[in-house]
Amino acid sequence: MLPFVMLATLAVLQVVGVVRDALLVHEAARAGVRAAATTTGTSEVVAAVDEAMEGRPHEVTVTPVNRQGGQLVTVEVRAPTRLGPLHHWVAATLVAEVEPVVGP
Length: 104
Fold this sequence. Notes:
Pantoate--beta-alanine Ligase, Chain: A,domain 2; alpha+beta
């Protein structure tokens, strides 16, 4: 009985870790798309995502790179995670409309 309880506890902890990673990636994508909607270029977007990811490895994609007011901007954030021996990526993609007056 005790081995089963320990195995179940470890499984729950692994799932909680993946859920935590997914929430972190979604929050980082939200921060990135907020920055992308109010600035031009990618440096501010990447900085916002980096801060939200708290030093964890990740990839950021911003489309389009050069934006004008009224356009839609897409920010995708991907981060590696593990579920036991399995390695996979958690991703979040968000879209926002660029504010009419965009500045640095």
